[in-house]
Predict the 3D structure of the following.
Amino acid sequence: MKKAYIFPGQGAQFAGMGKDLYDNCGIAHDLFVKADDILGFKITDVMFGGTDEDLRRTDVTQPAVYLHSVISYLTAVERGLSKPDMVAGHSLGEFSALVAAGALDFESGLRLVSARAHAMQEACELQRGTMAAVLKMEDKQVEQACESICDDVVVAANYNSPGQVVISGTVSGVERATEALKVMGGKRIVPLSVGGAFHSPLMQPAAEKLEKAIRNTQFNEPKCSIYQNVNALPQTDPERIAENLIRQLTSPVRWTQTVKNMLADGAAEFIEFGPGQVLCGLVKKIAGEAKYEVTKYE
């Protein structure tokens, strides 16, 4: 039975995240302390004692979710959990997945996530953008609505599950696409409380800055395949992995196809590490009648 380990992205955070790990596990405590040193500020204070609003800034959220996810995984391994047969992460979660696969070490992953978060925060401040979840519509309909907005920026950004696609772009682009979707019969388009237009062309300045950090980072050959967001395909070549991480910022997250491909390649058990359990829910929607197990590591 092949095990697939999955890791969430931005949006899974909550106030107090990681405190139990810090208090009750020696390896977790040490890694959180190391993270404070690497980042140059006490992110543990924000994670453990901050408010939801404190955690909402991209340059705080991303390292916080990464830390909770990776430390949860490393704690589980310390307690005897077997290594994965395959891994995947949703957006930011791809960096956590790379640590689980052995392609990145804890410190390198954290530094890249911090660089990514700051670059994305700067891109958000450079040009205002937003996102909206489109529910109960076909992927093709969402794509057609976005393509109909010719003189503005709006794209399908996250293919989360059948009937759940997130669009991303300028505020006006997303608003116009929302109206087009309503004309096409869309009844549930939900604006998201996010800092910018993630996984859209508006993230190109961030991709250029992230590329410099990635080029200066050592990637190892992973011990198992990582299914990457940009094409939903398994990858083990370090150079291709790095290229796909750069492309990820301006490309859609193909989570639906990722889970389908993992199932097709023999995944029979999915375990989610990190805050929340959003991915567990998405896997259930995607897998349909396939035989599998899905659990949240606690």
Observations:
- The chain has a mean pLDDT of 95.
- The domain at 128-191 is CATH 3.30.70.250 (Alpha-Beta Plaits).
- The beta strands are 2-7, 86-89, 129-135, 154-161, 164-170, 188-191, 225-227, 234-235, 267-272, 293-296.
